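TASK: fixed-backbone design
INPUT:
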């Protein structure tokens, strides 16, 4: 008897620009019968990228979950059991704050063949879009990626403040006040450069600069919103030349710290 079981491929869609899909991601989309996609995945061009596929929007907005996670997992399994090649298209990389691990586990438990195509994570690419390298030989030899979705504990803040290097926070806008206050409380230099990069790789990309002690005021002034990546560290000084805000922030920081 021929098995009619299909399969599931978790595909990292990168930070939103279809040019940042991998070749493997494009091939998986071309071959897909069904695509379940997220809000931050590159969905605007999906009809062209996945011409044969039924497209299902399971996108979540902050604080609003149109399709609960267990229902997404149920849909993946049900479509694969019908014999479909199912693509689960996620923003960035499926295994970076993307619940990819849970979806792989759900498929395995159901006996569905599942594979993962990694994607370009926003944790590295969105800072890069603003000209910020997360490491730099003379400034930062480690970077830490943190979810700011839930408040950080005092222990986590203390570790982060003492680690050095670059801190990259995803989903951190809501909790930015408690994060910046906690880092300062545990000894981080209030002059530490900070950047908030919104909507990376879109026409609406914007970077707001400040320091640990000023970024809340700057963010409020700019009306910063999600999705955004927060970068804390000396590397923020390297933000793209020609950006007026970056130039002002660099001059400001230099004046504050002296020669
Ligand atoms: C649920 S997490 C998923 C992260 C994703 N798996 C990754 O590897 O990039 C969503 C968060 O990623 C960040 N993010 C994703 N794409 C972004 C973009 N184009 N511009 C700014 N931030 C982005 C934001 O912090 C957003 O709240």
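OUTPUT:
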């Amino acid at each position: 008897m021929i098995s009619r079981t299909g399969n599931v491929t978790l595909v990292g869609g990168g930070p939103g620009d279809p040019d940042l899909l991998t070749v493997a991601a494009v091939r998986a989309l071309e071959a897909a019968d069904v695509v379940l996609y997220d809000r931050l995945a590159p969905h605007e061009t999906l009809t062209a990228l996945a011409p044969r596929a039924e497209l299902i929007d399971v996108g979540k907005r902050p604080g609003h979950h149109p399709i609960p996670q267990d229902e997404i997992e149920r849909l993946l399994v049900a479509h694969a059991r019908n014999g479909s090649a199912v693509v689960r298209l996620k923003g960035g990389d499926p295994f970076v704050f993307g619940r990819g691990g849970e979806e792989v586990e759900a498929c395995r438990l159901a006996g569905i063949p599942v594979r993962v195509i990694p994607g370009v994570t926003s944790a590295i690419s969105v800072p890069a879009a603003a000209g910020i390298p997360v490491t730099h030989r003379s400034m930062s030899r480690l970077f830490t990626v943190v979810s700011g979705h839930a408040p950080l504990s005092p222990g986590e803040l203390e570790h982060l403040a003492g680690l050095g290097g670059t801190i990259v926070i995803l989903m951190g806008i809501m909790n930015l006040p408690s994060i910046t206050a906690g880092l300062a409380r545990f000894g981080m230099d209030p002059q530490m450069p900070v950047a908030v990069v919104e909507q990376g790789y879109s026409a609406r990309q914007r970077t707001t600069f400040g320091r640990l002690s000023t970024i809340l005021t700057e963010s409020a002034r700019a009306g910063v919103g999600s999705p955004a990546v927060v970068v804390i560290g000396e590397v923020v000084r390297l933000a793209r030349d020609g950006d007026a805000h970056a130039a002002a922030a660099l001059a400001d920081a230099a004046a504050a710290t002296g020669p």
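COMMENT: Residues 7-120 form a domain with the Cobalt-precorrin-4 Transmethylase; domain 1 fold (CATH 3.40.1010.10).
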